[in-house]
Amino acid sequence: MDLSIEQLRQSFEQQGYIADQETIVTVYLALKLKKPLLVEGPPGVGKTEIAKALAAIFDAELIRLQCYEGLDENKALYEWNYQKQLIRIQLSQANGGDRCTDVEDSLFSEDYLLERPLLKAIRAETKPVLLIDEVDKVDQEFEAFLFEVLSDFQVSIPEWGTLKARQIPIVVLTSNAEREISDGLKRRCVYLYLDFPTPEKELRIINARVPGIEERLAMEVARAVNYIREQLLLRKKPSIAETLDWARAVVALGADRLTPDVVNFSLNLIFKNKDDIDTFRQELGTQGLAGFLNGNGKNGHGGRG
After folding, report:
1. C-alpha Rg value of the chain to the nearest Å
2. Between the CA of residue 290 and those of 166, 249, 252, 283, 304, what are the distances in Å?
3. Distance between CA atoms of 146 and 132, rounded to whole angstroms?
4. How far is CA 305 from each of CA 65, 69, 259, 278, 280, rounded to the nearest angstrom?
5. Are strands 190-193 and 37-40 parallel, antiparallel or unpaired?
6. What is the pLDDT of residues 42-88, one digit of tens each?
7. Which candidate, 238, 226, 240, places its Cα nearest to that of 267?
């Protein structure tokens, strides 16, 4: 399915993903050039959701490689099922022994192969979406291996030889910018930086993902989250997902406004550690947030409440 920029934007919106023109054009170019898309930005801004939306738009399988410190080629590419191989050897010995070469060949057949995400994407019969999530968490050695795979879309299995991709996957890499990604990997990708949305954009996201929410309440949630992110020094800024959880929670409480009581009852939807809750109470408070939403003062800081 070859989409125009406008069709791609509409398709994203149909999946509930609200994106600005820069994001849509960058994704479009990555698709047209058949290059991996590297999406960088703070946690919770919707990087992973781009891959999920693309999988839905193209009706493709989403294959996810979750990166972490210590990830190696075996965990990302393939492994042999050693336990199953050992059982095969033991059965062969118990049956008086098969021909040695036959047993050895069978041990490295399809039946004993454990596909990991990279190999699964390369062997996919139909074009998948390969999500390589939080690539900034792996070491440079694995990163070098990764961009070699992404350059040629082929891998080598000693027992089988070289396997080329049946279909070039749509590749999305995400990074929280915890460390600098190498130039080698960046050269192979189309780069996109995502930041937290403006209140106007977050309002559109809320309206798209929280059906039935009143416009005034949606606006207050969007403004409140934006203000909290900008004004408070937090260990973890509220993500878009947490904004949506907060909006749904407030609707579930039957509220039509972000009153101090409603905010107080639902703080645990946007703050996920005690330090950030304490920071909110000490530096802003529910009364201070209410003051900001009501336009009482530029900063609206009200301390405890």
Report:
1. 25
2. 57, 18, 20, 13, 12
3. 10
4. 44, 41, 11, 12, 10
5. parallel
6. 999 999 999 999 999 999 999 999 999 999 888 898 887 677 767 76
7. 238
Summarize pLDDT for 3-31 with one digit per residue, the tens.
999 999 999 999 999 999 999 999 999 99
Gap between the Cα atoms of 221 and 257, Å rounded:
9
CB atoms within 10 A of CB 180: 9
Which residues, listed in sequence order, are joined to residue 113 by a DSSP beta bridge? 80
pLDDT tens digits, one per residue of 232-264 = 999 999 999 999 999 999 999 999 999 999 999
DSSP-assigned letter for residue 251: H
Residues 279/285/290/291 CA torsion (nearest 10 deg) = -90
Burial of 173 per CB tally in 10 Å (0-12, 13-18, 19+): buried
Distance CA 132, CA 121 (A): 11
Contact present, 146 and 132 (Cβ < 8 Å): yes
pLDDT in tens, 101-123: 555 657 666 676 788 999 999 99
Closest among 138, 141, 171 to 153, alpha carbons compared: 171
Q: Can you tell me which residue has the tokens 């992404």?
A: 150
The Cα angle at residue 127 between residues 123 and 130, in degrees rounded to 5: 80
Q: For residue 1, what pLDDT band results from cuts at 50, 70 and 90? A: low
Structure tokens of 5? 């920029």
In contact, 248 and 285? CB cutoff 8 Å:
no
Report the amino acid identity of residue 111: D
Where are any strands of DSSP class E within 113-153? 113-115, 129-133
